[in-house]
Each structure stands twice: as C-alpha cells, then as structure tokens.
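Human: Not sure, check this?
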Amino acid sequence: MTEPNEQSADIVQRKSRLAVTSFVLGILALLSFGLLSLPCIICGHLASRKIKRCAVSGKRLVVASLVMGYLGVLLFVVAVYWSSTRPTYSLYTMPSGKTIKLIGLQKWHEVGEDNSIALLYQTDIDLNSKDELREEVEHIWQFLQVNAEQEGVTKARILAHSPAIGHFIKKRSGFGFVIEKQEDGTWKFDDDSQ
C-alpha cells in the first residue's frame, strides 16, 4: 500500500498536457513572430480552466505561455505594420547623378511580341503633367537604353507610378511610355510623331 505522501506527490507531479502544449506553442509563437500565438493562447486558457477543475499542476507554465502568446500577437502586429510602412522602392543613383525611386527592372514578355525590358519607378511628379513626366522619363531612358542594348531587346517600357496610398492594402496609379527600336537602330517613343 502506498503512503499518503507518495500518493499526493504523484498528483502534484502530474502536469497538464495542455499546459505543456501551450508552453511549447508559446516558444514557437515568439520564434515565428506571432504566427502560432492564437493556438498558444487558446491552449493556455483551456489549460488554465482544466488546472482549476482537476488536480493537475502547470499553472506557471500556463502563465508563461499566455505571456509568450500575447507577446507573439504584439510581435505579429509590429511586423505587419513595419512591413506595410516600408517603401516599396529602392533609391538608385543613375550615372548622371540623378536619383530615382526604382521599383523594379525586368524583362517583359508578351504573347506574339519580342521580349522587351521594363523599368518601374515611383515619381513625385503629378501623373497628369505629361510634359514634365516625359522630361523625367527621357532622362531615365538614357540609363535604360544601355540595358536594352545589352539585353538585345527591341522594345522598352518605362512605367511611372505615383506614391502608394494605404497601409495594409496599397493603391497606386501609373502611366507608361513605350520606346521601340527602329530598323535603322535608333530608338523612338511610341507617341512621337512620324
């Protein structure tokens, strides 16, 4: 027959599996910047209820896991906010010394057409000011033309975008210019008169 002290020691040493699960999820929530915070918090609250009702231990684990779970939520909110407020461009200084807000430079593929190259950038010029915008694009074209020649493409696009509006869902407007290589080897903007 077991002594009463041994029997009560067995009861005290039994930890709530839910508390242990919640604690592990709490650690993972912090390591994953809050992605596992919700399961951690749910398991923590369920384990807390079970500990109050049953003769199992693990209250300290539950408290620690809930703290980690809620910290994980805070980390997640900060990470989402930080990623949504970062600029979507990188500053690039052209050989002329002028700096542009470069969003991307890539090959452009369209069905039935030769490959082209596209430069996307953010402009501070009002997109309705076509003459001022065209002047800026012509300056950028001096840089892009070298890339177009190196890539061997016959068409280039320069797409000017307004600054993005919004935090989580960003909206922006744009206006594009197309420059095509002529048979004589010169480049011409599509909107130029013949």
Remarks:
- Strands lie at 90-93, 99-108, 116-122, 155-161, 174-181, 187-189.
